[in-house]
Every structure is written in C-alpha cells, then in structure tokens.
Amino acid sequence: MADNINIEEGSNPQSELNRAQQVSKTDSEYKPESVTITDVDIAILSYLEEINLTVVSSDGVKKSVPVIYGNPEKWNQAQKNGYFKDQKGQIQLPLIMFKRNDLSPNDSLNRKFNKHERIIVSSGYSDKNRFDKFSQQLGLEPTQELYKIRVGDHVQIDYDFIIWTDYVSHMNQLIEQLNWNSYEYWGPKGKRKFRSQIDSFSTNTDVAEGQDKIVKTTFTLNVKGYLLPDNVEDSENDEIIKKGYTNQKTVLITETETGLNNITSLDELDKAISKNRD
To answer: I need a surface site. Which of 72, 94, 143, 156 has the fewest CB within 10 A?
Structure first.
C-alpha cells in the first residue's frame, strides 16, 4: 500500500517516490489496529464477565453477579439513591457497577514516550519461502517478514467500582474473588490485556427507605494501559505498521586487476589469468 506523498509546488513526483519502500501489507496477519480508551473499558468489562463472579447462598444455590458500565445517568442515580433500580423499579441485588474516572501518563516507566519509536516484530514465516530446487541451486536463504510497529502511549487509568449485595457474607465472597484477581492482566482471552490492581475495599451498610438493608462496597481499580490513536496522520513516520523483509541472498563480488593494457596475445592473457588464480 503506497504511502501518501506530500508534493510541493515545482517538485517532481517521480523523484520523490521510492518504489523500493512500497511494500504491500495485503493478506498479512498483522493489521493496523488502534487501541482506544473505549478498548480498555471493554477489556475490563469482558474480563469481569469471563471470570464469572458469583455468590453462594446458605442453601448452596450459586448466583452469577451482573457487571454493568455506569454511564452518567446510571451512576448519578446510584450515587443519589444509594442503590440501582432496573426499568421496572426493582432494586438490583447483587450488582457491580463501574465507570472510568481519571486518566494520566504512566510515569513509572523509565523510557519516555516517543510517537516515532518502533519495535521490530518478525512473523517467522513468509510465503516467499516456498521450497523448490531452483531456489536451492541459487542458495537462497529463508526470508522473514519484518513489521515495525509503533509504540503505544503508556497511560494509567482509574476506575471507580460499587458493589451491592443483600448480605455481608455475599459481599465477602465477591471481595475475596476480586482481590484474588488483583495484580493480574485484565482482558478477554486471546486479546489485549492490561495490568490491573485494587489497593483497598471500603464497605458499609445502608438501609433504604421501606427496604431491607443493603451492603455496599466501593473500590478503585488502577489499570496500566497504552493507547494507539486511530486518527493520527497516516504518513511515513506515523503509520502504525510498516512492513519489510530480511535479505534472501548475499552475493560476494571479487574484483581482480589483470593489467590488460600490457597484454598483446592470447598466450599472455592465459598466463595473466593463471597468475591471478594462484
């Protein structure tokens, strides 16, 4: 896929375009993918759904605990009332709700972020390595596809969580499960994961008007993530993925001086060649 070339007035387009650098990424396993803030949100939600947080009642019945993302309307309702109701007006217990709070640069890394920095990843295989006798006779070496991938912008994202349950025993079970998964990489299987940790849990018991008591716990989840915006300039320096190949064959050329200007016959030429071979 050809890069976009900025052509200044009076310049020659043919002289600025280097076809040797125009490497197609068609049918490649590596696709230009962005990493957005929403992707981190989805990774956290997907992980909590996959680990399937549950509570077990006194009679041994296991119940899965739903996890929802708190948009501004839901979060404000929960903060105002101290609980969350569904569309039918029923208080949802047990329930976990979370929302994104602060986002800041990750200063714990020694290396400063450089948007032009890249890391090199090898595919380990290329369709150019198809074996045939002709390639063997030429002494061609296996080639690898190399991808120069832009480094992400490392950030720290904090999420506020609220847990509601009917009983203290149910709350204890959820805290134990969440604490067990702290200091782990949260995200769906086979996809991006981000290191997450929970520092502390704060629990209290509220009594809603005309309702039984509600056990409530809050905590903050700290996520170490990275971002690769998808709306940056698609230029030679900013393209997310750049493709290349390793050398397939190395050719060594030896130059020999024969002093041909002093040769006047075929016999003298044969002697000169034999002398250089020795």
So the answer is: 72
